[in-house]
Amino acid sequence: MQTRYIFVSGGVVSGLGKGIATASIGKILQSKGLSVTAIKIDPYINYDAGTLRPTEHGEVWVTEDGGEIDQDLGHYERFLDITISKEHNITTGQIYLAVIERERRGEYLGRTVEVIPHITDEVKARIRLVAQNTKVDFVLVEIGGTIGEYQNVIYFEAARQMKLEGDRVLFIHLTYLPILKHLGEAKTKPTQHSVRELREVGIQPDFIMCRSEQPVDEPRKEKIALYSNVSKEDIISNPDTRNIHQLPLLLESQGFGDKILNKLGVSPKTSDLTEWRDLVERMENPSRAVTVGVVGKYFDIGAYKLPDSYVSVLEAVKHASYLNDANPVLRWVDSKRFEKEGRVTPESLDLDGIIVPGGFGAAGTEGKILAIQYARESGLPFLGLCFGLQLAVVEYARNMCDLPGANSTEIDPETPHPVIDILPSQRRPMEESRYGATMRLGGQTVLIRRGTLAFALYGKERIMERFRHRYEINPEYVSAMEQNGFTFSGYSETDEIMQVGELGDHAFFIGSQFHPEFTSRPLKPNPLFDGFIKACLRTSS
Ligand code: GLN
User: Fold this and answer.
1) 315-324: per-residue pLDDT in tens?
2) What pTM, to 2 d.p., does this model score?
3) What whole-number distance in Å separates Cα of residue 323 and Cα of residue 529?
4) Which of 61, 410, 517 to mutate for ligand 1's pocket (most ligand atoms within 8 Å of CB)?
5) Which residue ranges form the domains of the chain, and what is each CATH number?
6) Which residues are catalytic?
7) Ramachandran assignment for 533, one of left (phi > 0), alpha (psi -120 to 50 degrees), beta (any other)
């Protein structure tokens, strides 16, 4: 089947969950036996998300081929259970860089290089390339930002041109219907304005999807239909849900999948969402709760808390919890608090287990080390993700191996015991201030030692997980650590650098140099998270 393109744009406000909506559309198409992939367009100038701080756009998602990209791509991989490559994240920086480099090579043969057609041609070429490489039935394209913004206009223009040039294209516009408290009524005016802006750039939406606290009612649908030139049946409800995984079911219950197929000239197909529905049911009725603390530092921006910085960790905890019939209760624990208090008490960490996630820089690290020490000594289940493992090694070196002042050189370059040190391959890029896409990135094979907790969890000797780091366990300290009871249970295939560390004689204490959260899927939790949640449930009962 010729590839069809579905563009998803947003209006009124950002943060409506365009990524989840796009992933859900993909899910319902998949459930009809059709193949799907997705592209996220980010209209910023950054080449990729690698140099962005997590409080800007949320966590950085790492692809298997080593891309550092927008977190929405994580939702696509999770919902659709696909592995996508870094070319599926297009940024304005990439587009302009490619065009300017081509201009410098003289490839435009002296012509004036302009936004239209050269920039838009580059956008279209990249979108079509994904279709060519993946050969899927549907490419979903999420245009970042909202209509009316100056910076994403080239993407709307490219989308418009694709339709004109004969590609089979569909437009879905996601808007917001605020319910004004003092009126108790959902207002459609912002949606009307936003659709008008879309039509001003030459795009008539095929569907309008309305985010609101409640489902859209008939009078509202009629109004939006009239003002937007969209039939009433094509106004789709996307109300608040308790759980994002409900959305595909909600959309399919409105016949959305077949409506899409119909507009794109594909005959209707029955959908099989049985497994997904079972998952949602399991999520709705867990028989117990598990309380997990994430000890980190990227939580606040102004007066607001932004758990988006750790969205994959959160999702991985959910996957493992629901599979184990438990409702996850997440607590965000700011590690700086322990630094102020100078210690951790059972009251301050009254949880079933703690996760110390990835992180960069010195801020808050002493607090994380105190929390790890507490977990080690009290038997509280602990899972360390990348930086979390590195700090567990620091803690063990200081307190159990008689290496006072041990540290990572990322935190203290003058430490007498650099138990965590920069990867040799990272020295040059750091000296030359080349920060973009220079970390050790993407999928790597890790060998797991038999007879360890890691082996019990993964059940095999070779695993593939995704990395994103510049520092590593210093090989010079490995034997001292092991002699004092720390077990390194996984190491890299190529250079035998330690990649997993654990403690025996503990309810559950393990950390990995990789980020297991990137390979966790709703129906296939990552083994480290699964083991961690099981341990939390064991110790809490
Ligand atoms: N800052 C550490 C490093 O660069 C850990 C990175 C991470 O947690 N992703 O190695």
Assistant:
1) 999 999 999 9
2) 0.90
3) 11
4) 410
5) 4-279 (3.40.50.300), 286-540 (3.40.50.880)
6) 386, 515, 517
7) alpha
